[in-house]
Structure formats: C-alpha cells, structure tokens
Fold:
Amino acid sequence: MWDRCLKRLEAEIPENDINIWIKPLDVVVAGNLLSLFATNDVVLDKVNSSYLNSIVAAVREIYGSDYNVKTAIQKRQVDTMVETNSSVPATKITSNLDSRFTFDNFIEGRSNTIALAAAMQTAQTANPEYNPLLLYGSTGLGKTHLLHSIGNEILKTNPDEVVCYLHSEVYVNEMVKALQQKKMEAFKQKYRSVTTLLIDDIQFFAGKERSQEEFFHNFNYLYEGQKRIIITCDRYPKKVSGIMSRLKSRLGWGVVVPIDPPDYETRVVILKEKAKQFGFTLEDDVAFYIAKQLNSNIRELEGALNTLKANADFTGHQIDLPYTKQILKELFKVNHQIVSVENIQKTTAQYYNVKLSELIGKSRKRSIVRPRQLAMYLAKELTDNSYPEIAEAFGGRDHTTVIHACKKVIELLNESSDLNEDKQKIVNKLTE
Structure:
C-alpha cells in the first residue's frame, strides 16, 4: 500500500525528489497511524516543510480517511551494517582504508599545502565548512594518500563513523552487478548509509550515464544529510568530457583544490622520508641528485629508490653518489631523452594548437607569448640546459628573455590553477 502511495505522490512531486527525500524513509504502520522515520534532522525538516501535506493526502486516499501520519527521527546506532527494511538484506560495509596512509607521513610542500589543510579540516570537523572536498591533479601526487588519511583520521577520532573508500571503477562495477542481480535497492541503501564517502578518480565515470545518474542521487542524499563527501579527479572536473553538467555542478558545491607536482625541495624531503620507510638512510648528495633528475611525480621517485635499494641489497654495495649514478643511469638517460628542449617545444605547441614556427619565432601575440614562456620555463625545469642554450633554441634570443619568462611563469603558477593544469598536462605528455 505504501508503494501505491508513492505512485500517487509521483503525480505531484518530481521523481528525483521522491527518490532523494521520500523513498529512503522507513515506514511503520500500527493501527491507523503511519509513522515515517528519517535518518537525520535535515531530511525530517525537508519532508515536513515540503512534502508532508501531499503525503497525508495520499495516505488517506490509499489507506483510509481515518489514518494519521507522524514523522520522526529514526533512533538507531550507526555501525557497519546498512539499516534496511525487511525486504532488503543487510549489506556489510568495509572501509577499504589503508592504514599506512596518514597525515603524519604525508610530505607537505608548496605544491600541496592547501590540499593538505583542506583534507585535515574535513577530517577533524564533524560538519566541515567545505563539503564536498574535491582534490585534483595528475597521477602519483598524493591524492589517494590524502583520501586514506582523511578516513583513518576520522575513524581514529570516532570509531562509530561509517567510512567507505573506493575507486570509482569499483563503484561502477558494483552497480552493474547490482543491476544484473536486481539488487539496486540494497546498493542504494549501502552507499546512503555511510557517514563519509571517499571516491577516487571520478573521471572514470565519464561516458557512463547510468552510473553518473545513480551517483548523482546518492551524492544528493549524503549532501543533504550533511555527510562528508571527498572526491579526487585527475584534472579540473569541469574539463572532464563525458560527465553530465549537473554532476559537474554538484562537484563544485564545496571546494576544489589542485595538487601540483612537488618542487625540488619537496622532492628531496620525499626521497629521504621514503628511504627511511624502506629501511635505509639516503645521503643528502644522493637525494639532491635524484631530485634533480626526476621531477614528474612521487611514484617515479619511489621507483628509483626501489631500484637503488634492490641493487644495493643484492650486491652489498653502499648507496653513495657514484653508485647511484651507475645504477640509475639508464633510467635518467631515458628520462632525459624524452624531455629535451625540442620535445618540450613540440609538445607545448601541440597542446596550445599553435605552429612550432610561431612558438620559436618573433610573434608578440598573447596567444603565442604565454605558451612560449611556459615552454622556456619547462625547458629550464626539465632539462640541464643553461639559460643561453635555451635562448639559442628559441630562435637565438638573449638569455635574459628566458630568465624573464621563467620569473613570469612562476608568478602566474602561484595565481592561476588553469596554468598549473596546463603545465602538468604537458609534463605528463612528455613523460608518459
């Protein structure tokens, strides 16, 4: 009979509103009293203010004119079991958190200071000011580390919280399985029962309309219930093609924070800290040398350390600078072959859709000058070429032009998330 009431309500209430606000209510009928239990005050207030009159009318039409309707908060303990009605089996929720990732072992640098502060604020505040929190940046920069750190910090403070981390691909696969097995109600209940949802790599939803639709409704449910939502993406979300506009809009409701590649000083600290985790001490000169050679992402640094340590363990050799140069020379050689001034020029020109001859030439059009300055900056950052050598490669300019370009780009990188994103995409193309 309650299903008949829902169908009756669909005539005057939008389907999305029914799915978000009314269907999740627990229904109990005793005598001529129908009680509707909401999970929190936000849902209760919304139902009472917007839908109660319509619900009462539908109940009296279907159940009988002598029926009354009562709304209340469902008093129940939050645990790791999904609360469902008797027709839907309970589903256990596992946090999927990796205990190795915490705020204590996250290396802070200029490239991730704001992201770290936002993550800590989200984890340490019951009702964070910025919700959802979306972190974006290329692979290997620490986004997943921060997701796990948030979850671990929340559970350390309040073990009764229901925290769930998952990759967006897992979400999609689980939803497909639920569709095949006709268990969508259990799927919805599962992810609407969490108090913190941590979703990694939201760009995987691109082109998957049904998954986006389902996530959109679950997002709304959690958001209106003041539950934490933390998401990562490999680029600024509004630039991900194949994501529906209303979901992009939701993702921007809170705060969107970029994570950039680590600067030179941060790479040195990361190398030394990772070496400690691997069980050995990395001398300063070795750390400085590796950090100079590799500047893409943290995973690349970890890979170099793993290779170095494995060879040292097999040979019993001390890890000093000469040995490091010997063992990692092929890795650095490949890296340098890929990242040359010529390749930087070609890749930057292709990225901005300008002619290579214009990038290197004398044009003073803004659409050419900015890409040219960024290419000069990348040439200095990613190669061992000197200012005069880079200037010569850019049409025989004076080396002071390159110095000015580098200073200008550094200023702009501190001000513009768009330029940071452009820079990272070009670096990714150069090192992929």
Notes: The radius of gyration is 27 Å. The chain has a mean pLDDT of 84. The CA atoms of residues 307 and 328 lie 8 Å apart. Residues 41-62 form the longest helix (22 residues).
